[in-house]
Amino acid sequence: MPIRLSQPGARRVAVLGAGSWGTTFSKVLADGGSDVAIWARRTELAREIAQGKRNSDYLPGINLPRTLWASPNIAEVLDGAEMVFVSVPSQSLRENLVAVRDIIPREAIVVSLMKGVERGTARRMSQVIQEELNADPAQVAVISGPNLALEIAREEPTASVVSSENLQTATLVAMAARTDYLRSFVNTDVIGTEFGGVLKNLIAVAIGIVDGVGYGENTKASIITRGLVEMTEFAVAYGGKAETLAGLAGLGDLIATCESPLSRNNTAGRLLGQGYSFTDVVAQMNQTAEGLASVAPILELAMAKGVEMPIVSQVAEVLAGTMNPRDIAPHLTSAGDEPQPER
């Protein structure tokens, strides 16, 4: 590996995960002036990022900043980091944190770039981070919003939201991620921000399914609109704020994920709608579609609070093979024949 290029006085940042989003956000941080090191599990990928300033597996055609560096040695990447951004598959987060808990700098701010809920525990990603690192909630932040990786890597203008229970922490992270093409807003509603990022993936799978079947814009617009209602009621039931779900982490992310062919969850749903089985879809996807893994734990959480989620429930039936994708119409379900309040 080449010697790490450092900018005098630059903030030292570590990014764990060299997939499309981890690499893209590393580029954002480097463009924002930080000295960035990426942990890549595969030696050959780390070498390509460090020497060639490319990640051809996940971001073909994108040139990475010269100050961005990578290594398969996670201790080397974490050494001296003031902020640690985590971008690994949500279901492997806990085991990854167990492996690094003793080498993450104690004073570092830890930031989740992930959008998922852990199977088995139904924990949000920030909760897993706090548990495994014994971290103060004020030391943890999450980032969400309409953030399709490739578009940001191409430097197409967009916005994110950074959330932490400590507003100063959120502000520090937002400043680190400030570039000419990305700006971040801040809030202290971690629950709403995280659940928005999780739930929109499930609605995007539903949109992909009806798209794969061949249904048109009326169907998709109805599901998106009713999906936002489900997302909001769920998040509020767990202590989130309704206004958060009407913002970048909710509606903004929902629109981007449902409408773009770059969305992994939309793609997974489209394959399901075209008749592929769940197993076939997983085999065809070269990246994780977090929505597929989050359906079961979200439905468990919804049941615990008495929240009705007909869209997510029908997605679960399609995944289980108990519903024909052509029959999906969750926005048409109701308890009876009487018209229901729109809410």
From TrEMBL:
Keywords: Cytoplasm, Lipid biosynthesis, Lipid metabolism, NAD, NADP, Nucleotide-binding, Oxidoreductase, Phospholipid biosynthesis, Phospholipid metabolism. It is found in: Cytoplasm. Its EC number is 1.1.1.94. It catalyses: sn-glycerol 3-phosphate + NADP(+) = dihydroxyacetone phosphate + NADPH + H(+); sn-glycerol 3-phosphate + NAD(+) = dihydroxyacetone phosphate + NADH + H(+). Residues 189-328 form the Glycerol-3-phosphate dehydrogenase NAD-dependent C-terminal domain. Sn-glycerol 3-phosphate binds at K115, G145, K200, D253, S263, R264, N265. This is Glycerol-3-phosphate dehydrogenase [NAD(P)+]. It comes from Terrimesophilobacter mesophilus. The lineage of its organism: Bacteria, Bacillati, Actinomycetota, Actinomycetes, Micrococcales.
